[in-house]
Amino acid sequence: MESSSFKPKDHLMLPDHPGVYKYFNETGDLIYVGKAKSLKKRVSSYFNKNTGVNLKTRRMVKEIDKIEITLVNSEFDALLLENNLIKKSQPKYNILLRDDKTYPYLLITDEPFPRIFQTRRMIPKRGTYFGPFASVKAMNNVLDLIRSLFTIRTCKLDLSPYKIQEGKYKVCLEYHIGNCQGPCVGKQTEKDYLKDLEQARHILKGNLGLPKAHFKLEMQEFAQNLEFEKAQRAKEKLDLLEKYQAKSLVANPSIHNHDVCTLVVDEKYAYVNYMRVKNGSLIVSKNVELKKKLDESDEELLLTALIRLQDQFNSDAEEVLVPFEIQNPIEGLNLVMPKIGDKKRLIELSLKNAKFYKQEKALLQGLNKDKKDRVIRQLQEDLSLPDIPDHIECFDNSNIQGSSPVASMVCFLNGKPAVKEYRHYHIKTVEGPNDFASMKEVVGRRYKRLMEEDKPLPKLIVIDGGKGQLSSAVEALQELGIYGKMPIIGIAKRLEEIYFPGDSFPIHIDKKSESLRLLQRVRDEAHRFAITFHRKVRSKNAFGTQLTAIPGIGQSTADKLLKHFKSVKKLKDAKEEEIAKVIGTSRARELVEWREKNKGSD
């Protein structure tokens, strides 16, 4: 794959070839990734004033400072590369799947007498993974089925041949109740064990036909040999498989290996249902929500979700069923809109799921909004506030034995954290551990800045601390001439007492009250934010002190090294070439020579 860079004004020089384009802003941040059958036509369409591009896209185009392209062999390759880049970089103008879950897999280990168990961590060397499973319940159903049909061990013993020969193991309860045949004491050969395991693999792949044929043959052989008890057990296992298949069957078993993807949309979001069907059985059903970024078409939204979900669930589907004709088909992606029969019924089932998911989300959002309104109204009542406290700001200080004093301010809007409004503060005017003076400084700085920028003041200020910190914050507001324009309270940690300025006695809100829980959450968030910043500052100071002790390394160079390597340990392990990329060849040589001389002195 070839990669090249262009300026926006040079977009007509792009090749008429499939590929991926990346847009960067003037600070070098990746803001958008796209795919194209023809890079020249697609990228040029963004800069053509006659194409009626929507306002959101126009806003993005204004930010573009550099274009990078990567040429690939086909549009399908471009689609896969685009998906990988979006997943890795999450550019701000690309659609993102709103799903931060990790899904479970079933693992067949790579060891003597392999085990089967669930895990959420993929380490390829450990064995073969099956999944991921969108539902833990569905995964457990498959695992329970396998353990009912086969005698797969569940212990963690090392069953290497020499370990078994040493005779150190004893059979456990699983052997006595018939769930294991005792390979740990040589009662079952690995060859016999692997026959069962092979059938389990077929079930995990969704191929139930082969295990059914296996048990049917077993049943017939036992019956011919007059081993009727064994024949009955084989029949019971065959019945169990057929019941499992009947329970999961949603279509004609002749529908072998298909994906189904449908969506319903509103003004801001798309609600997508994705299903995987094997041999007529539904093995995955997953709903996701997409937020529109540039008023994307239904086709773009569907393809975006489909490719990412296929990647997430390791799909090898021969065909993908979709709810409408795709106007711009992609070679290599077999998309079909069924009009009759079982495939059409699968589309209807998927659409039913997508619509239900949309309704569920709308209901949840309504309930959440009602709850937030109720909680902040309750807080207004509990504190006798003049206005609904839909804008709360909370301050906290952090220092340990006076070192690296810092402070934080967190902001909650409508009862919800507004993370973009959070602020960190280095204490500038106070020497030594003085929480009261530090609080006065940061409150003064915060509201002086808001007044200068003509921004709205909060409806409630919360100070993490008792009467001392509260009095200091009040002094800052008085000096700015805005004391009394907004309520301010202090919340003491020990008894969750709430103080108002000038009142000797605190007020207590019912411990079970939602409004108190909101105040506690605001206070705890400010504390967390301050502590995290304090640790970062202390770590940076320690790192900088160690580096500036090296001849030729000043504070500016130390900061560059900190930003790149994050820790002294990583710097000590780095090669000279990597260090040189950050601070230049001569300084890198000095640093490496110093490192070699002082090796072992830590």
Automatic annotation (TrEMBL):
One Pfam family this sequence matches: HHH_5
GO molecular function, one term: DNA binding
Domain UvrC family homology region profile, first and last residues per copy: 289-477
Domain GIY-YIG: 16-95
Keywords assigned by UniProt, alphabetized: Cytoplasm, DNA damage, DNA excision, DNA repair, Excision nuclease, SOS response
Gene Ontology CC, one term: cytoplasm
Role: The UvrABC repair system catalyzes the recognition and processing of DNA lesions. UvrC both incises the 5' and 3' sides of the lesion. The N-terminal half is responsible for the 3' incision and the C-terminal half is responsible for the 5' incision.
Name of the protein in question: UvrABC system protein C
Gene: uvrC
